[in-house]
Amino acid sequence: MIIMYDNNKITGHRIPLQDRYAELMDDYASAFYLKYFGDDTHSVPDYYYAGDILCVGDYFFNYSDVRYCVDNDVKEQDLFDWYDYCLNIGMIDQYIKTPTLKNWIAGDRGIEKSKLTELIGLKKSVEKALDEYKDTEHKQ
User: Each residue of 91-107: b (16+ CB within 10 Å) or e?
Assistant: First the structure.
């Protein structure tokens, strides 16, 4: 069964909901891309969706975050600060909770910057020690 969306009550033109959803996702992706990546010179957009994930170069955004940014005019700096923070936390430990974009914008900055810097340094030290251990183990 195809559920129809009544697009225009005057003409009676109806569009299947799944088509309208895909159209809306693309409209949001286009607005997001232009605002945060500032390039409208390509005839073919430099982004694509993989399910509900928008892929732009090396960046990946949930559709809900894309929509939140467009609907709330999130500042570019805030978006990329949040994104970088989440990447840094993910590199330290995948089980550390990160704030949602909405919470980040509302002021939840997660782990203090100085503590985050310390954790990154400690992780690098552990990785270096492990590499040194592996090197000495292979020489024996």
Answer: eeeeeeebbbbeebbee
- Those residues whose C-beta lies under 8 Å from the C-beta of residue 66, and which sit 6 or more positions away, are 28, 29, 32, 54
Contacts of 95 (CB under 8 A, 6+ apart): none
pLDDT at position 40: 61
- Under DSSP, the state recorded for 46 is S
Instruction: Say yes or no to pLDDT of 22 above 70.
Output: yes
Contact 5, 16 (CB under 8 A): yes
Tell whether 58 and 125 lie within a shared domain: no
User: Where is the domain boundary, 73, 88, 123?
Assistant: 73
Same domain, 124 and 56: no
Q: Is 73 left (phi over 0), alpha (psi -120 to 50) or beta?
A: left
pLDDT in tens, 36-62: 988 666 555 678 888 889 999 899 999
Task: Examine the pLDDT at 9 and tell me if it is beyond 80.
Answer: no
Average pLDDT, the chain: 83
